[in-house]
Amino acid sequence: MEKAEAANCAIILPVDAVVAYHFAANAPSHAYGLDAIPADGMILDVGPQSIARIHAAIDDAATLVWNGPLGAFEMTPFDRGTVVAARHAAARTKAKKLISVAGGGDTVAALNQAGVAGDFSYVSTAGGAFLEWMEGKPLPGVEVLKTALDHVNRAPRALQIQENSDGSHYVASIARSRGGTRLRRAGLQHQQYGAGAGASWTPPPASTRPSSSRPRAARAPTPTTSCSST
């Protein structure tokens, strides 16, 4: 609480709760203030006053990050707090007054039950990893991808140049490879081109370009016959 106060962060705690004596759907229940909850009762949902406080906090927020339902949302009527709050956040999101982000398996199930999962700005199914990502902690899978991408970015680029049927040339693609690309077009045999900043390529004169057509086989001379009259 002291750290939250120092960071100007308000922790909203419930002031009342819905209490039942059996963990079952539609079990008899009653809302109590926190100081009046029976010792043998079970808190299964937040009470109406707590829901009002949550709504007020959502109304004051520009961004909502939600992880975890408010009560035993799998059973009626103890899903009321979660469903009402989710629909309120969804309505604010649809009105473009709130950016809503939710994550975690139970949270996604609760939003689906409320029928508003599609109305949130973003819904993650990553569970605990979602919270670790939000906290800025490294995730093993993401770190592997970052390392692989770094290796790709550091590899030298090579230009691949293709020849048209009319003898003109064009850059077909830019490939990344550690050895570069060996070009065999327009007399550039065995020349390796690394693409650094400002790299360019100029086609050689037409007179130096090899013919793109295959050499034809030599044809035997056609026999001729000459006739003379005497």
Q: Structural class given helices, strands, pairing?
A: alpha/beta
Q: Name the CATH homologous superfamily of the largest domain.
A: Phosphoglycerate kinase, N-terminal domain
Task: Estimate the helix proportion, in percent.
Answer: 25-40%
Total helical elements: 6
Question: Care to describe what's here?
Answer:
The chain is of the alpha/beta class and 230 residues long. The protein has 6 helices and 10 strands, in the order αβββαβαβαβααββββ. The protein folds into 2 domains: 2-135, Phosphoglycerate kinase, N-terminal domain (Rossmann fold); 155-197, no CATH class. It has helices at residues 2-6, 48-60, 80-94, 105-114, 128-135, 140-154, and strands spanning 16-20, 29-33, 42-46, 63-66, 99-103, 122-124, 157-163, 169-176, 182-183, 191-192. The strands form 4 sheets. The protein has a 3-stranded antiparallel sheet. Strands 4-5-6 form a 3-stranded parallel sheet, sandwiched between helices. The longest helix has 15 residues, at 80-94. The termini are far apart. The model is unreliable at 173-200 (pLDDT under 50).
Topology at a glance:
Elements: H1 2-6, E1 16-20, E2 29-33, E3 42-46, H2 48-60, E4 63-66, H3 80-94, E5 99-103, H4 105-114, E6 122-124, H5 128-135, H6 140-154, E7 157-163, E8 169-176, E9 182-183, E10 191-192
Parallel strand pairs: 4-5, 5-6
Antiparallel strand pairs: 1-2, 1-3, 7-8, 9-10
Helix pairs in contact: 2-3, 3-4
